[in-house]
Design goal:
This protein has 572 residues and is α/β, with parallel strands linked by helices. Among the domains are: 169 residues, no CATH class; 173 residues, Regulatory factor, effector binding domain (Multidrug-efflux Transporter 1 Regulator Bmrr, Chain A). The protein contains eight helices and 37 strands. Strands 1-2-5-8-11-14-17-20-23-26 form a ten-stranded parallel sheet, with helices on one face. Strands 28, 29, 30, 31, 32, 33, 34, 35, 36 and 37 form a ten-stranded antiparallel sheet that branches. β28 and β29 form a beta hairpin. α1 packs antiparallel against α2. The protein is globular and about 75 Å long. Pfam families: Pectinesterase, SOUL. One of its GO terms (molecular function) is pectinesterase activity. This is Pectinesterase. Keywords: Aspartyl esterase, Hydrolase, Signal.
Amino acid sequence: MSFRYTDVFSLLIIVLASTHFLSSNLQHVKHFLEEFKVISSSSSSSSKSCSASLDGRHHHHHQTASKVDMCDDFPRDSVPLDTNTTTTFCVDRNGCCNFTTVQSAIDAVVTLNSKRSLIWINNGIYFEKVIIPKTKPNITFQGQGYTSTAIVWNDTANSSHGTFYSGSVQVFSTNFVAKNISFMNVAPIPKPGDVGAQAVAIRVGGDQASFWGCGFFGAQDTLHDDRGRHYFKDCYIQGSIDFIFGNAKSLYEDCQLVSMAPPLPAGQKSINGVVTAHGRASADEDSGFAFVRCSIGGTGRIWLGRAWRPFSKVVFAYTSMSDIIAPEGWNDFNDPSRDQMESFELPKAVFSTPSAPPTTMAKTYLILLASITIIVYILGFSNAYESPLYTVIHSESEFEIRLYQESVWMTAPVKEISFRKATNDGFHRLFQYIEGANLNNSRVSMTVPVLTSIVNGAGPLDSSAYVVYFYLPDKFQATPPLPLPELNLKPDSWTTSCKAVRQFSGFARDKNTVEEAEKLAASLSKSQYSTSASSNFAYSIAEYNSPLKFFGRVNEVWVDVDGCESIDVAAY
């Protein structure tokens, strides 16, 4: 996910990021949002100029335009239909749906509903304060892209009687999901020392929330990652001071963290921004922030984090950082006693300039990864999880031959060029399935491995055909729960099969998976085993570990071979 200043919401940020254009007068902000709506509409061939105010009412000076005309371009086929386990609520600010505001759709959700409530939100800027109470679990916000759909408000700590209550969106329910939408607080950007100017874009206070391809825009305290277990994937997060803060247990994968702190004159060494402020108050609290394969850039001279509470815990792993990061890296919130209690780690962080942090940052705060307890991802991966049964028929130093028993898997076909992106996309859909997005509304236990198969003639950076597999646990082998139709999943029954397997370590990526497959092919060419002519796949990549396991990772390349199906042996 790349940041482009030509994106419509990036343009909006440029306009709204100046205090010259912002004021506490909502009508003033609405004026600029309305102007932006015209820019957005004219720059997109798929957008039709519709005359509607921010509160969903039509302007009276367009009396000749009927609602039918305004809704001609409404993408009705894109709105999912209701299913046995999902109810769809359609939101369009121009009145082309049942609801013109997001909050009205939330209010219509049945209290304590066990079904998933999918709130489908059309393109547009929804200027409203949104609250999801604890009594409304299992809600999904489905936007049309984080650069084209946003919920916007402008409360501050002063106006809302506290930072925690300033969020444009506040989520207190469990199992909340957001996809392809932005959350924004457009209050004036505070200057250093301003009191009560904190302005939260979203507060996430419910357990098991996930965000996919979302944007978070603000200045001080943008994302209040308050409490519970949360997952952020391919998100764009912008702010200036403590712009990710709270006491949640959260994993951020492949996210962009962008500082909008003011640029400093050359040679000036003052600090004017901070990425994180974690609030772990005691060693007994199971919380922390983990950033994996993220990037940090923008402007200013900033710290990666500061210890908001004495036992703050933050991990940056495999993360690229520009030279805006100050060499000291971390701040104890002016309380030296916190230096011995906080955990701040940088396993394999990548810095863009030689002057960036590695030498000085490590002195006090860099603790060996092996010596601390890693934050566990909501799902986790473990050797204790079920896996398909097999018998080793033949073993050499470079590979082994396994005979796999009959089994049933759930599959996600993916059209994508990149192996890594295909795996992420497929597992995203499979994750929803195992979390209950099936006709039985059943939760399915995690298993290993997650298997990505490359169709014959395809491959990373070459073609675009993949299938991602999830092995169904023994409980569901005979009667797999049927997936919701919109997930585009289907069960696949395997007969007894013979596979050549090569193991490799590290993270499975586009380049090394091809290299490992080529090594396995070379080994097989010198053996008695030949690649199966009847196989639909060139090879498969099996991954066994959580994204937060940095060392001792296990991956495998699988290739279907002939020659061992008739052997009668006991399975592992």
